[in-house]
Design a protein that fits this description.
- The protein has 314 residues and is mainly α.
- The protein has two domains: 2-75 and 110-239, Fumarase/aspartase (Central domain) (Fumarase C, Chain A, domain 2), CATH 1.20.200; 250-310.
- It has 13 helices and six strands.
- It has a two-stranded antiparallel sheet.
- α1 (2-26) packs parallel to α7, α2 (46-71) runs antiparallel to α5 and α6 (174-198) packs antiparallel against α7.
- The longest helix is centred in the C-terminal third of the chain and has 29 residues, at 208-236.
């Protein structure tokens, strides 16, 4: 059961990865403010932002593939305590072949049946992998919650239901909230499943029914979360490029890239005037720097190119 669930979840992971990679290309020329510790830092392309989100998803895809490899080892023929007591050898081998034929899964009998009957760490590893996938998705949607909030407004969570009867303009980010809630539950259940695993005693873990129950719940959580993220969420998520440019032009982020040609104190002294003049575009910032610093326009324009702002220095 868990093996098949992992196959289905991995397929959903692939869909999300494809969506993120596509947007990485779509937005490779869109500049946005990168922030560290919730403070403006340096420019970054929106494509790089989506690329950063696709990284953990790619690793989740790799992990799930490896987890399925672990789960194909089964304790068939171990009987009560892993010794194989009372099980005819020929029947065990025949049953292994028949089980592979019926399930169409690459199942393989464990070569250490006492271990396989006694320990369930492979199931715990699987649960933790599912929990890590949920944590990664939670991080991405938490970022999106900030980007789409009134505090930032660089992205928009499209309306999928009425926000409030007394606030007609309010749009509730219900898809992000759904994903985050499901991911929190999945992560908690992963920890619970690990607890069931380590509480097995001596030659048998009697908690397997509880573990199976949590795997069903985790699978449902991840399937809904990943499906919503790659489907409905991407459909309603809109990019506000004007807001991105305005925030970037009026923040320290663009000015920070001039640190190699302007003094630290000079940059700090320019910021209040930039804010006072409500500079909202790169061109306006270039004109401001030309009149308020010793820098020539050619150098300013070169410093403000996409490659100079978001790549290695020459």
């Amino acid at each position: 059961m868990v093996y098949r669930e992992l196959e289905d979840i991995e397929a959903e992971i692939v869909k999300l990865q494809e969506q993120l990679v596509r947007r990485e290309g779509d937005y490779e020329n869109v500049l946005v403010t990168a922030r560290t510790e919730l403070q403006d830092a340096l420019p970054v392309t929106l494509g790089q932002v989506f690329s950063a989100w696709s990284g953990p998803v790619e690793r989740d895809r790799w992990r799930f593939n490896k987890l399925r490899e672990r789960l194909r080892i089964i304790p068939l023929g171990g009987t009560a305590v892993g010794t194989g007591f009372s099980a005819p050898r020929e029947y065990v081998f025949a049953a292994e072949r028949e089980l592979r034929r019926i399930t169409k899964l690459p199942l393989s009998r464990s070569q250490n049946l006492c271990d396989q009957i006694s320990h369930t760490d492979s199931l715990a590893e699987c649960a933790y992998g599912m929990g890590l996938c949920a944590d990664n998705l939670y991080k991405m949607t938490s970022d999106l919650l900030l980007y789409t909030s009134s505090l930032c407004g660089e992205m928009t969570h499209g309306e999928v239901q009425y926000g409030s009867t007394i606030m007609p303009d309010k749009v509730n980010p219900v898809l992000l909230e759904l994903i985050r809630g499901k991911c929190m539950e999945c992560s908690a259940l992963a920890g619970l499943t690990g607890g069931y695993s380590r509480n097995g005693q001596l030659q048998l873990n009697a908690n397997l029914p509880f573990m199976a129950q949590e795997f069903v719940r985790m699978s449902e959580d991840l399937t809904v979360s990943l499906g919503t993220a790659s489907g409905k969420l991407m459909d309603v998520l809109k990019i506000n490029t004007e807001s991105m440019e305005e925030h970037l032009a009026s923040s320290p982020a663009l000015l920070n890239t001039f640190r190699d040609v302007l003094d630290y104190t000079e940059i700090k002294s320019l910021l209040p005037e930039i804010k006072r003049q409500h500079i909202a575009t790169k061109d306006a910032l270039a004109a401001f720097l030309e009149t308020h610093t010793r820098l020539g326009r050619a150098l300013i324009n070169e410093k403000l190119t996409l490659t100079s702002l978001t790549g290695y220095t020459k």
